[in-house]
Design a protein that fits this description.
The structure is a homodimer.
Chain A lengths: L6 E11 L8 E17 L3 E6 L13 H11 L6 E7 L10 H16 L6 H16 L7 H6 L2 E6 L5 E5 L5 E7 L5 H6 L4 E3 H19 L3 H7 L6 H4 L6 H10 L4 E4 L6 E5 L2 H18 L3 E7 L6 E4 L1
Parallel strand pairs in A: 3-4
Antiparallel strand pairs in A: 1-2, 1-12, 2-4, 2-5, 5-6, 7-10, 7-11, 9-10
């Protein structure tokens, strides 16, 4: 075995999945917030989780998202005896901006760095998806992929193996509000209809195609028009107080568009200009101040690199 | 009124709609075959259709696709007294490669040239959609848009107005086979299920996004992987004898992929190299020779300009 280092620090970014029309296929990484993770190879067998925060997340590896992802990875790297992970979470669990994906992605990127980078990014996505399964019961990759690749990613398909397409997007300012209400991913998935009208599906894939084209052609107006969701948003937005006020106010302030981040409750808005993103942040604060709900606002940009490895 | 010329000739291309995963939203224009149309402003009021072929198409303007499109256009240009159209069709009606769209698109592009180009391309698409309504009962634009714009087009949405996104595709060789069987567009639409499983819809919009990305990034392998249709093809391919043989044989010959053109019966295959496109043509001929069905094969490329206007 030749390991490049014995310990490593990883900054694992928050992510926005779905991106309005791209349910289960689109996502992007945020410059802020991010988790900080420290990984260390150990002589003690297995995976060891240490949480450096008060979120009360499980530390039993099979029930911890980082742990489950690392256990999957260790099955493919049987020469590794053990790995210890210390997690300092800044991405609040249940916020809808990829808290579990950051832990899972950061863990596998970190261990891969300790192993000299032997696994490919698609392989890392597959390992990390085991972490998402622990978090939500579904091995989805729409937060995992941007957390690992950075930027905006499209998941063409997840079977037989994840087929991930990085999309070279233009500069975008992102404003995120996390209202302090609970929306469980499993509940948010359960309320979705399992059959959709063909006409709505056509509208949706027209928008997905157009959003991809708008991103790749750096056509901001097209990005704005394509940020339309006729299938998921009408159902899920009911779970999020202030949704329509934030959306309408953000559009009025000049935002390109936006909607629910992942399965919520966070909402995100994309803007071409920083001043617009600031005005959107004000709209978000005003909305939740009036509703008397506590909230966090993040005004940030797209993280282009994904999980960042700092060798110690 | 200042008209740039009194008569005009238009070459109106055949088109492939749907493009496997992009049902109702994607299409591209073919370099061959194309219709030839001659338009003339007349003092005699209204629209006059002259068919220069034996296809027995209606000449009553409201029942003729070119006529219906021109009638819609004349409502927006009330100063025009009349227009005469002589149509020499080379695109066989019922072939599934946009025969009706070529007539409708060619007619409105021709009249627009006679009017000095006053209408925009999105407006022309709207007029031409009235022709498609005559042909199939549905005002769809997935053949019309590429016939007018050329190249590969994405229709983000058709309401409130057509939102058409031209996609700059890499060079592609196209092989088309038109087996001599009848598949009516109206029948092909009727057999589709009006509700689709959400999981299938997600797979489809992942593929649509990936196909757009593959085209814009000139990534041939990605184009190939994205040419997958889990919703329409499983239903419609049953109507087309030889479908699976052509598809499997073409893949074996090295084609990127392909499927049903529009609602069929024509099948198309895309190839990166001309030699592959020739091998695909052989697969198509062999398949229908064995089945004892007459057929036409077109080996061509993508038309980048759409309807071409030749002033007389």
């Amino acid at each position: 075995m030749s390991f490049s280092s014995n310990t490593v620090t990883v900054l694992a970014p928050a992510t926005v999945a779905n991106v309005v029309c791209g349910f289960d296929v689109l996502g992007f990484a945020l410059a802020e917030p991010h988790d900080e993770m420290h990984l260390r190879l150990t002589d003690e067998p297995g995976v060891h989780i240490l949480n450096d925060d008060d979120f009360g997340l499980p530390t039993v590896p099979a029930r911890n998202v980082a742990g489950a992802a690392l256990l999957a990875m260790l099955r493919a790297a049987p020469e590794v005896t053990g790995v210890e992970v210390r997690i300092r979470k800044h991405i609040r669990p249940g916020s809808g901006i990829g808290s579990s994906a950051a832990s899972a992605a950061g863990a596998v990127v970190g261990l891969n760095a300790l192993l000299g980078g032997r696994f490919s990014r698609p392989e890392l996505v597959e390992f990390a998806m085991y972490g998402e399964e622990v978090a939500s019961g579904v091995r989805h990759a729409d937060n995992i992929a941007p957390a690992i690749y950075g930027g905006v990613t499209l998941i063409r398909a997840t079977t037989p193996t994840p087929d991930i397409v990085p999309l070279d997007a233009p500069p975008l300012f992102v404003t995120v509000v996390h209202p302090q209400i609970e929306v469980k991913t499993s509940d948010a998935r359960r309320i979705l209809k399992q059959q959709v009208p063909l006409q709505d599906a056509i509208r949706q894939w027209g928008n997905v195609g157009a959003l991809v084209a708008g991103l790749l052609q750096h056509d901001y107006a097209l990005i704005g028009r394509a940020l339309e969701d006729v299938i998921i948003e009408p159902v899920r937005s009911i779970l999020i107080p202030g949704f329509q006020q934030v959306k309408d106010g953000s559009h009025a302030a000049g935002a390109l568009g936006g909607g629910i981040s992942g399965s919520g409750p966070s909402l995100f808005m994309l803007s071409q200009h920083e001043a617009t993103a600031q005005a959107v942040a004000d709209v978000m604060r005003d909305t939740y101040d009036r509703l008397g709900l506590a909230y966090y606002v993040y005004q940030t940009t797209i993280n282009k690199t994904g999980c960042q490895v700092l060798t110690n």
